[in-house]
Amino acid sequence: MGVRTGLSTLVKVTVVSAAGLPQAARMLSELLDLVAPERCVGCARRSLWCEDCRSALTRARWVSRAGVPLVTPAAASPVMMRAIAQWKDAHYRQLSEVLADLLLPELVAEFDSRPLNVVLIPSRKKSLHTRGYQPMVDVVEKLARKSDGQFQLATRVLAWRVQPTEQRQLDDVRRERNVAGRMAADRLPSGQLLLLDDVVTSGATIREALRALTDAGVRPVGIAALAVPRNNLGQDFVKSVAKPRLRI
């Protein structure tokens, strides 16, 4: 758990009981800023994520050979990868708001005002147990609020029939084998679907999700990710799923 999150949990009851709600909120904020000030994930300034570091992100767009666009607010961005690591693994949940703010304009630019059901790549059981919550659900809930309901979470559409192993240490070929044929689609909502993942590395998981949805009779109108940490998504991804067409 992050320092600020832990301290907030420890002192909230004491502060609220000692003062009214407005005073409690102010006292809590001042106390946390004193003992554990928020620092930018990019440059460590006194800000959750400063404007300079946000503006330095490299936005990108690819189009799959099947015509499905993949959009992301951060291609090959070390700052974004550090932020995602803190958000997911250090319980820095305040970043959900920032990540939703970064993703929303990319989605609106690509899909205009179309209402879309957001389908998430399913988490592994071990990750759910370790974290105790689903970070991507946090982001989609904030997207729904910020977009006045244009992007709504479609729950439990994709699931692992067979749990994959941890992929971080696997090369592209082993990532492909690790997930191939293991995902299934169910509980399909009416309306158009947007497939969303946190990070697209080799594209193996996205490919498997597309296969599962296609087998169930649907194809998403788009794919979105918070980050794509490679300039060209790896040769296997380019050949089998997407080819770079337009950089923005």
In short:
The protein is 44% helix and 17% strand. The chain is built from ten helices and nine strands. The strands form two sheets. Strands 4-3-7-8-2-1-9 form a seven-stranded mixed sheet, sandwiched between helices. It has a two-stranded antiparallel sheet with strand order 5-6.
| Total domain units | 1
Please give the number of β-strands. 9
Main sheet record: 7 strands, mixed
Supply the helix-strand structural class.
alpha/beta
Task: Flag low-confidence runs.
Answer: 7-19, 232-248
User: Helix count, per DSSP?
Assistant: 10
Shape: globular
Q: CATH topology, what is it called? A: Rossmann fold
Distance between the first and last residues' Cα? 36 Å
Could you state the order of secondary-structure elements as H and E? Answer: HHHEEHHEHHEEHEEHEHE
Indicate the radius of gyration in whole angstroms.
19 Å
CATH architecture: 3-Layer(aba) Sandwich
CATH C-level name: Alpha Beta
